[in-house]
Specification:
The protein has 187 residues and is α+β, with helices and mostly antiparallel strands. The protein contains five helices and nine strands, in the order E-H-H-E-E-E-E-E-H-E-H-E-H-E. This is GNAT family N-acetyltransferase.
Amino acid sequence: MSQINYKELSPDDFEQIIALGNHVHGDGYLDNANILNWYNKGLKNNINSGFVAYDGEKLVGFRITFAVGNWDIDKWSSPNKWQVPQGSVCYFKCNTVDENYRGYGIGSELLTRSITAAIKQGAKAGVSHLWKQSPGNSAVKYFTKCGGELVQSHPDKWREDALNGYDCILCGHDCHCEAAEMIIYFS
């Protein structure tokens, strides 16, 4: 592995992000419409909270983060259990690292860069839904190592997405995977 280069996510990265995201998370996870939507949700005050990691010309990781006020708090979120006002919480939508590049700190570096940007956008904390069925529960372990605290577990979090075309790599189109709603406080 050569030196990893990090930069703000841009539309030039979309094609490789879609390919990596669908390979890691399952077909139908990303397409042109939702990556553009997710990218725009990461922009606030001329600050971009999304980041990518490259090894040469190859995209090896990406972090999608929605800025404060640019995401909807839905039935899968528990703002009454957060210790900060919901209007000061960003959303860590997706962190994806190529399987051949895991264990080298790329995911943590992408998260650190997103947190720095989110603070500049006005965030005091960030919430995410972590995939508990990731191999060895690695998603929850990684987020915990980065300071994340469990808020609540949500069974069947991605079932509706699966019924609408998302092909979960474990469950197919009848996903019953569980999400761990977790929060990181920035101060």
